[in-house]
Design goal:
0% strand; mainly alpha; Serine Threonine Protein Phosphatase 5, Tetratricopeptide repeat; 6 domains
């Protein structure tokens, strides 16, 4: 067969003819075989003896071209995948496991059969305690290379974390089967599995002992005495604490726990204290810590005195933040539940502020947004509660620029890889923190923060995002509005970009998004004349007139402010207002608004548009003189509204003197004369 293929490839026509003849002979031989009676097996193809030479050459050329192109594409994809792998490795080394997973995933989109990307992502999943996903990636890595030792090793660790002891042992045994020389390295891994399985069995035994009739019948005092027994296995204490937790039925048991010195468990028992305070906890110490957290929740629920005693315990100031940062999901979950007991009440929040160093809590709690489970929601609930306390805002200033802002910016950039609902809440909470001038100023000066906000907006511009992601957009627009209360070099730097994004968002079908985009636009335009010029070119005047015709007080407020800024210095905007708002029908309606801010901006806008030839004459048969006179004469309580109305009145009569006749009839000449001083000053 190989000779035949070589014959077809030959450039010699004689050799090709010979190969073709031999092929026909073989086909005839196969037709004469034992299956001859089956007509469906007979090949009745008529072969043109002249055409195949040309066709086979074209066909082979096409195959070779396709192979070259595929090799070229693969080489390019390999480069891209390796670059993304290195970015993932950098993120992994920094401890940013969510970003590492994102980069490895992007690499696999380029090259689906790169084993290293699967094992690296599995390792990142292990760090995030997403063990099932780690096992899945290890399986894919083994499909790429069934002898991949790293895949077997990581899978063994994941199975052990899930307490799949048999599967974990099998993974380590496969490593020894692949390379027996590594026995000394992985023998300890198998021993660890055996010890963990034994420990779990002992824990179950200890818990059953405590749950037996003779222990459950004991009083709170007697149970505490049992726990005071020294030199017992840590599992004994874990089981006892769980039984004690179950005995907390109401405030009576809570009081008995306190009066029998139950809070001394941490200090007086060395095994409990050491296990609870351990930096890197083993499984038994993790179980002990979770048992204690359950106990404290039961003891402190609705009991202010117990809450005070626990929080004033010497170890708790350090331990709560350590437990939150432990990286163990169950410990974090129960620590958040305990803190929630405090943050939900004013008394509890004051205890936290008084007895805890909260300077790092904003950063620690924000990091839970990377988690897809309930921890993210719990952390945001606590943050929302804490922001009600002015002392928390003051403490948060300490590490805001160095720790919180970089983390927050990264969360915005990675919005689609984190918990979207929690991120939207986090953005809103940071917006609330911006009521603190010091915090707001730091954010407004941060270029990375503005870049991250714009990146999030860009993700939503196509309109294909999920509802939770739309909530993120809504929240970030609100945050931008708060930050624009400040003026900074960073704001001026991004003014063009921000105004451009807002213009795009005005076509959104979500009215809330449109309103906030208008708000941002009205606050960013004063920072840049270039931004004003660009939005005017982009048709902002027609959009604002259309919005103003539709009504709505909040949107009208933002829209007329935007128009007043544009018409202040841009002649094209002035001309477009005159053209789009026939006889100033929209502006006249706004001048009769009950909202003085809207009235003031409408008068300001009108005053600038009256310089357009013919604009003042178009108002001859309207009541504009009477309306402006009313506001300029003192009906408006805001002096800036009075000034804007007086300026508009002066420009009206200067541009079209015939309005003076109506002004005389209304006895308004004195007001006109006083308004002239404003005209000379602008």
């Amino acid at each position: 067969l190989a000779d035949l293929l070589e014959g077809f490839k030959s450039a010699d026509p004689v050799v090709q003819e010979k190969a073709l003849a031999e092929t026909e002979e073989r086909l005839r031989d196969s037709e004469a075989g034992p299956e001859e009676e089956c007509r469906t097996k007979v090949n009745k193809t008529v072969i043109n003896t002249r055409a195949p030479v040309r066709l086979s050459r074209d066909f082979l050329a096409a195959l070779e071209k396709d192979a070259r192109e595929r090799a070229k594409r693969r080489k390019r994809n390999e480069r891209l995948a390796n670059a993304l792998k290195e970015k993932g490795n950098d993120a992994f080394r920094r401890g940013d496991y969510a970003t590492a997973i994102q980069k490895y995933t992007e690499g696999l989109e380029k090259l689906k059969d790169q084993q290293q990307l699967y094992t690296n992502r599995a390792q990142a999943y292990l760090k995030m305690h997403e063990y099932e996903k780690a096992i899945g990636d290890c399986n894919w890595a083994l499909k790429c290379d069934e002898k991949c030792i790293k895949a077997h090793f990581l899978m063994g660790k994941a199975h052990l974390a899930l307490k799949h002891f048999s599967e974990s042992r099998q993974c380590y045994q496969k490593i020894l089967d692949i390379d027996p020389q590594k026995k000394s390295l992985f023998k300890d891994c198998i021993n660890e599995v055996n010890l963990e399985e034994k420990r779990m069995n002992e824990e179950e035994k200890a818990l059953k002992e405590f749950q037996s009739g003779k222990f459950t019948a004991l009083s709170i005092k007697e149970l505490l005495q049992k726990l005071d027994k020294p030199d017992q296995n840590i599992l004994y204490y874990s089981g006892g604490i769980r039984v004690l937790t179950g005995a907390m039925k109401d405030c009576t048991e809570q009081t008995l726990f306190r009066t029998n010195d139950g809070f001394s468990i941490i200090n007086d028992n060395e095994v409990i204290r050491r296990g609870f305070s351990a930096e890197r906890k083993n499984t038994a110490e993790v179980d002990l810590s979770i048992s204690l957290l359950f106990l404290w929740q039961a003891v402190c629920a609705g009991n202010e005195e117990n809450q005070r005693l626990l929080l004033t315990h010497p170890d708790m100031n350090v331990q709560l933040s350590k437990l939150l940062s432990s990286g163990v999901p169950e410990i974090q979950k129960e620590t958040l539940a305990l803190i929630s007991l405090y943050s939900e009440t004013e008394y509890g929040r004051r205890l936290l502020v008084r007895h805890q160093d909260l300077s790092r809590w904003l950063q620690i709690l924000m990091m839970f947004i990377n988690n897809p489970d309930g921890r993210a929601s719990s952390a945001m609930n606590i943050l929302a509660d804490l922001t009600k306390e002015e002392s928390f805002k003051i403490q948060s200033r300490m590490e805001f620029s160095t720790a919180v802002l970089p983390l927050f910016s990264q969360l915005l950039v990675s919005a689609k890889q984190v918990n979207g609902t929690a991120l939207a809440r986090c953005i809103g909470i940071v917006g609330d923190l911006c009521t603190d001038r010091a915090v707001r100023k730091k954010m407004a000066d941060c270029q990375e923060c503005w870049q991250a906000c714009l990146k999030l907006v860009d993700e939503c511009l196509p309109g294909g995002s999920t509802p939770e992601y739309q909530e993120c957009l809504f929240a970030v627009l609100g945050l931008m509005m708060n930050l624009l209360l400040e003026s900074s070099a960073a704001i001026q730097c991004f003014a063009l970009d921000i105004s451009g994004r807002c213009m795009s968002l005005l076509s959104s079908k979500d009215g809330r998004i449109v309103t906030r985009a208008l708000g941002v636009l009205s606050r960013i335009l004063p920072a840049s004349s270039s931004a004003v010029e660009e939005v005017v070119k982009g048709g902002v005047v027609k959009k604002m007139i259309k919005i103003l015709k539709a009504g709505g007080q909040i949107t009208s407020n933002y829209a007329i402010r935007t128009l007043s800024i544009c018409t202040k210095s841009n002649s094209q905007a002035q001309e477009e207002v005159v053209k789009s708002d026939k006889r100033f029908g929209v502006l006249l309606k706004l001048l009769n608004s009950e909202n003085e801010i809207i009235v003031g901006n409408a008068a300001f806008c009108l005053g600038h548009c009256l310089v357009v030839p013919g604009a003042a004459a178009s108002l001859l048969n309207s009541n504009v003189v009477m309306v402006l006179l009313k506001h300029a004469g003192g009906d408006a309580t805001n002096t800036s509204v009075q000034e804007n109305a007086a300026i508009a009145l002066g420009r009206l009569c200067t541009a079209e003197p015939r309005h003076i006749f109506q002004l005389r009839e209304l006895n308004g000449m004195a007001i006109l004369n006083s308004s002239m001083k404003y005209l000379h000053s602008v």
